[in-house]
Amino acid sequence: MKEKKLRAVILGKDPETCRLRSRLCESEQFEIIKCIDPENKYSNDDLQDLDLLVDLSADSSLSKKLMEQNHINVEVISELSSELLFCSSVTHDVKDITPLRSLTLKSLQEIRRSAFIRENNWELTNHILRLTMQSLQADSGSIMLADKSKENLFIETALNLKCSGEFLKKSVRKGIAWKVVSSGKPVIIKGKSKERSDLDSSICCPLVSGESVIGVLNLNRLKHEKDLDRDDLRFVLKVADSLAGIIKQQKEEKDPSFMHSFLLGAREILDLDFPMIERLNLLMMKIANSFRGKICNLYWYDTDSGKFLVQASSSFDINRIGFGSVRLNDFFTGRVLRSSSAFTFSTKEGATGRQKLFIGQPILRNKEISGVIILYIHSDKQDIRAETEALARTGRMLEQEFSKSDALYTARLNSVKYSALSEAVFNLAEIPNIRKLAKIIATNTCLILETESCIISLFNEVMNCFEVLESFSLKGSKQAEILCKVDKAVTLKASSQNGPLLIGNLFMEGYISDQIPGRSVLSMCLRQGGRIMGAISVYDKNQFDTFQQKGFSDHDKEVFARLCHQASAAMNRFLMLKSR
């Protein structure tokens, strides 16, 4: 079946009518498009057999007069409606042009996707109301929005309502609209109502955003052959859903300058050529000052103690006490570790009864909790979306900053490690005896891999066991003695594989008790010609920077393997002499 082509007239003045005519012609849905200037003469034949009248005039009454004078009855749509219906990316069926309901819904979806065609909030809501009224053949209507406290309704826009301009500015706390806001349920009224005796039927539908009602959409018919029914209500509910989404997004984007300014300031702070701890202190001050918070702290998670310790703060008192001395309380610690997601917590201050708000934003590194930002505010406000969004974006910014810092640190460290490794290999060739060689290997291994302890063992082929040759620990000889006992079991397990053995948690693996200080180990057997010569084990990755992660990395394993190969080659000189 061949698709019907439409006949339309554009009412307005050049060059607007010519521009729109060109746009509509591109859609290839029109048979004839004529332009009429209401102030100039035109032929009555131009208005015969029309399907559409597009009104571009500033006076909406002109189209009505034109239709009355020429005894025609067609759909009248605005410029924006015509562009949405025929020039947008939305697909539609032309047969639905009357009464425009499916097209209206598609148009609203286009508006919702299009980053707002109009910056003026009133103009946008007025257009949506007019489009909905045309689709429903309603005589009047209004959009009413609730204020921030949800205690009053204000008329945002109204069409064909018989009321004064002063009434439109007043707040409303009674009537059907207020009942709909309170209950959140739509209402159909048929027959004469107590409030409006001039109406035959009405629909009042709530505008729901999330779980809250932000306003109502009212549509009225005066004297009409058919009252508004449940089919009309289903259509209005769909319109209300789109309208609520548009209004919500407009409110969120209404003043983006503050959020933009805040994020720009935060980025400038992180880009300063200051030590990381100073930049973080400044960032916490920025957050607290921007949102009038009492205090804003950055806590870093210490895996050994299972506690969050303050590392940066907006408070000078905490800075004076010293970082690592102040910890997050157990309630919030449990909350962060359980969910790993942003949270808010409110309580009342005992003396004044004022609301205390705590907003938390976890910081992840390698998909694991590494810290949390806590903002503490004294405020009775209910809407804290701006604060929550700001902390979320700041958290993502910090995650990126730490990731970038890790990459730079790793690249710089790689250069230092390989340089130190080359120098160590050169020095090993000049060592006169194996004991001195072992001492040099142990200290250099700790320095290159940034570990706290190193143990070197030789394999006793007669006794079939490993015996400690040299031990070194930054924490002293007592720590080294404790780890020497643990190392026998570790090296025995390492002997079963060719590459480095990594044990991330010695306590969880059952190698140590909770009283023995030690977290992780890298161990590898020294082999030469298929023969086990000994083993090297390094314990506990040191943390020289608060914001560097603890634990051995894959790169550490690679460097450790190279060092072990060089050490086995150097030690082989003495063991070969000894075997002779």
Could you give the count of β-strands?
A: 20
Q: Could you tell me the mean pLDDT?
A: 76
User: How does CATH name the architecture of the largest domain?
Assistant: 2-Layer Sandwich
Task: Name the beta content range.
Answer: 15-25%
Distance between the termini: 101 Å
User: What's the CATH superfamily of the largest domain, by name?
Assistant: GAF domain
Could you describe the largest sheet, including whether it forms a barrel? Answer: 6 strands, antiparallel
Read across the widest sheet, the strand sequence of neighbours is 7-6-5-10-9-8
Tell me, what is the CATH class of the largest domain? Answer: Alpha Beta
- Unreliable parts: 89-99, 113-119
Q: What sort of overall outline do the alpha carbons produce when their principal axes are compared?
A: elongated
What share of residues is helical?
40-55%
| Domain tally | 4
Structural class: alpha+beta
Radius of gyration: 38 Å
Q: Within the CATH hierarchy, at the fold level, what is the topology of the largest domain?
A: Beta-Lactamase
Structure annotation, total helices: 16
